[in-house]
Amino acid sequence: MIHLNDIVALSYGIGIIGVAGAVFSFLRFNNYKNTVILQNDNIKALEDQANIHSNMLIENKNTIDSLRTRIEVVETLPLEAILTELKTISNTQNQMLKNLITKK
User: Domain ranges in the chain?
Assistant: First the structure.
């Protein structure tokens, strides 16, 4: 037969288990809340890094485009024609110098 003392003891046991469960749930919720906060901070940091890298990528593309334009300008210069003309000018100047030297 169940006595009153057994029921009281059982009630205390259930109460203790209930309090322990409440404490566990509270601690678990706080841990969950802190985890969510940390994850949000990590997501924000990753978004910031992605924006920085995106901006760097755009800057690098612009720099590459600028360098390609400069290369195209250099490639279109008539360097061989300029060299030929400079040799002609040099030869003409040498001839003029020789003429001046021989007239003295």
Answer: 36-77
Residue with tokens 């612009």: 62
Residue 4 is encoded by which pair of tokens? 């009153």
| CA distances (Å), origin 67, targets 60, 61, 64 | 10, 10, 5
pLDDT higher than threshold 70 for residue 1: no
Which tokens belong to 80? Answer: 């061989």
**Cα end-to-end distance, the chain, whole Å:** 148
pLDDT digits (tens, 9 = 90+) for 43-78: 999 999 999 999 999 999 999 999 999 999 988 888
